[in-house]
Amino acid sequence: MKFDSIKSRLVLMTLICVIGMGMLVASQHYFTQRLINLNQQRDLLLRMGQDLLQMRRHEKDFLLRHQESYFHQFNGRAETFSEKLNTLSPLFAQYQVSNDLGGDLAEALNEYQQLFRRVVNLQTEIGLTYNSGLLGHLHELEESLLNDPYFALGSEALVQLDAARLALRDFQLTKDQFHATHALQLVGYLKSRIDNGNEPLRQRIVAYQLAVTTLVSHYQDLGLSHNEGLQGTFRAEAHNVESRLGNIDKALQPLITEQENRVKVYSISIAVMTSIVLILVLIKSFATFHRAFANFVMFFYRCKRQYQKIDTRKLGFAEFKSLAELANEMVESRKSIEDRLASVEAELAQQTKASAKK
Questions:
Q1: Cα-based distances in Å from 14 to 22, 277, 281, 317, 337
Q2: 89 pLDDT above the threshold of 80
């Protein structure tokens, strides 16, 4: 298609504008969808962070109140966290993010769950209430000992037993190893004072000593402080999960920034290119129009004095060429009429002269 007419030039400029706007809308839609997807994934990460905070809350509630319901709530949150992580996984392949980030987070979460399960199991062995687990067994042994005549009211054995029980309670409250050692020493002293003839009582004292030793050992395994033992290990693993989750968020942030920059670059590039092409077409069209109009002005100016035709090759636009052809025909028609008029005038002059001679 030749763009040698005003109409075709207008169609060309319209097409340039439509194509430019179409490319701009398409690029905006494409990159906006990618940005929306990335921001949705980041929002998913934020919700996963909230799930992790809830897991930490249930963990602390269990350690404080020793209620099994918090363990079930913890597991429920962990399953929700895993489901969201599985939803997030396709993002790694789509945006060429290292799959190790998701794998490391899944492994850290699984380790965190397993460690907390061990904490729950150990605490269950110790006793979720005063009358369950090892605590309940100790209570039964203490009641059995207190009902024995050997620990009658006012006896030295009762004083020693009460001192051992008090030291054991102090250890449970403070987690101070001194109180545990003191309780075991007192129980050992009691065992040494019992006669060999009272074997049933000796066996109960031995059972009590073993229960106290086991309780102290379990508390040591659990951790005498938040940063020791199994508690310290699974708390460290919880921080590891938080760190892995933060690494994924850090990996997403550059992708979001890159997409935002690409939206700006593509939008500006398309707008600039469309504007440049449109301006060039307008300049060329204006130059062509101006040249054609000037040729017409010169034609009518010269037409008064001579029969000069318009060169249609210099006009550019087809509409002006059509007008030029009509103008050239008009010039030829005028020249023909004037030639005929001159011929008639010459004949009349000759006839007038001939009549005058007669």
A1: 12, 12, 11, 18, 46
A2: no
Q: What per-residue string of b and e applies to 259-288 under the rule 16 or more CB within 10 Å gives b?
A: beeebeebeeebeeebeebeeebeeebeeb
User: Is the Cβ–Cβ distance between 1 and 8 less than 8 Å?
Assistant: yes
- For 166, the 3-state DSSP assignment is helix
CA dist 117 and 59 (Å) reads: 10
pLDDT higher than 70, residue 137: yes
Three-state secondary-structure class, residue 307: coil
| Residue entry with tokens 């987690």 | 175
DSSP 312: G
Cα separation values, 250 from 39, 45, 246, 257, Å: 13, 11, 6, 11
Note the pLDDT tens digit of each residue in 299-342. Answer: 666 665 565 666 666 665 566 666 666 666 676 676 677 777 77
Q: What number is the average pLDDT over the span 60-67?
A: 88
Structure tokens at 113: 């769950």
Residue scoring higher pLDDT (262 or 177): 177
Rounded to 5 degrees, φ, ψ at 310 are -90, 135
Give yes or no for a contact between 190 and 164, defined as CB atoms under 8 angstroms apart.
Answer: yes
